[in-house]
Amino acid sequence: MIARPLLIALVLALGMQDDTTSDAAAAFEKAEARARAGRYDDARNEYKRIVSKYPGTPEAVEAELRSRPSAFLGWADVVRNGPSKNRIDVVLMGDGYELNHMGSFDKLSEDIPPLFARQSTFREYYSYFNFIRAALVSADSGVDGFGREYDTALNGHTLNTFAGHVGIDRSLVLNVMSRIPDTDGLAIVFVKNGVLGTGGGGIATIGGREVKTIIHEFGHSFGGLSDEYETQQSHGQGAARDGINVAATDDPKSVPWAHWIAAKHPGVGVVEGALGRVKGAWRPTSTGCVMSSTEGFCVVCQEALVLRIYSVVDPIESVTPAPQAQRVREPYTIGDDPFEIVVNVMQPATHSLEVTWWILPEARIPESGGASSRYGDTGTAGPRDRRRREKLVEITDKPASNSQNNTSGVHKLVLKKNELEPGRYRIICRVKDTTKLRGEKWPWVLKDDLGLLESERGWWVEVAKAP
Ligand SMILES: [Zn+2]
């Protein structure tokens, strides 16, 4: 048993600790708000103050890291189109920007989203992206190489290529992303005094302000696309291998884009010259692609990018009321008032997603549909990477309605007691991006093996027997 005075002292100490903790947290929030507003000097001073004033707190530990000569100071939205949980968050970072030059990186970061808004493929899905700026201060502005070492936030350095491409430390970029909530492992890094770009594994690195290469490098880093040019650009060459948009064979039946050839899409074939080599590697078109040197992606790359976008973004943004997995057998009751289900869907720039509703009597379950409803109680948990989800099964029953001409992005189903027989029903709403744009003969996606273009929510409802 604890003696009373000691207990009081303990309570006081705990109380004090609570105050210290919340003061440290508030101070930390203040420092981050300053960084968000571009007041980097003030933010640094506040981090330094936290280190001396609140020693031993987690805030002081993090503030110490942020007080170093080269450091992450915080982050800010550049363009926010929606909640990070259903958007592709691209983090923009600068390396070699000293404290008094960070404002020029902020300006540069504002120039990046418009490049995506103008590019024909990304323009259609622009609202699926957020752009976030990481505030990174570097003690020096140089790029390591040729015997010189500089202290920069991401350790920009010259790669061992004949053109001297710039590189950064991947682990440092990942570390910055881990300090920003809910990112998707995607960064575009600008190395102030570097040249040329590289891209892969989620990170595109751009030398200086060579913004014209951004979409190309993002094609590598985000889309996993390969170079379609045939001139040697010094990336180093191993054996040619099949990729999404390059092949090590000229057999039209076995190239990765064989489905476009089989569908007889004009302009798609097997063209020699890719991966920085004139012979021994093949690309899909002779008309060009961002992955060679033109402004638009070829249809093969475009298809891959749309599928990649939907590996992150669910076509269904939100629904009310809460959806239910198929195994949750607690129905919503339809009483005297109409029961309304609202589904908000994603909105590409020029075409609308297709929304289909089914009202299935309980006896038709589980023969019909419901596959995606297995994740958690709402059917919406499950892996963040939608490629790891299961494809929806086909529902053979006739849908209750199908709306393709609703361009508002808000879809409703109203159920009334007197319009349904008493009993239990499974309501299913499926939303699909047909990738068919007005005036275009071909959809952007021909083959969707993983069912990424489609999503589903389900609800149980019950109509009581009349008394
Ligand atoms: Zn291409």
List the helices and strands and how they pair.
Blueprint: H1 4-36, H2 40-53, H3 58-66, E1 71-79, E2 88-95, H4 102-118, H5 120-124, E3 129-137, E4 157-158, E5 166-167, H6 170-178, E6 186-191, E7 197-200, E8 203-207, H7 214-221, H8 258-262, E9 271-274, E10 277-283, H9 299-312, E11 316-320, E12 332-334, E13 339-345, E14 354-361, E15 401-403, E16 410-415, E17 423-432, E18 454-463
Parallel strand pairs: 2-3, 2-6, 6-8, 12-18
Antiparallel strand pairs: 1-3, 4-5, 7-8, 9-10, 11-13, 13-16, 14-15, 14-17, 17-18
Helix pairs in contact: 1-2, 2-3
The structure holds zinc ion.
The site of zinc ion has 8 residues, from helix 9.
Quick structural overview:
The protein is of the alpha+beta class. The chain contains nine helices and 18 strands. Bound molecules: zinc ion (ZN).
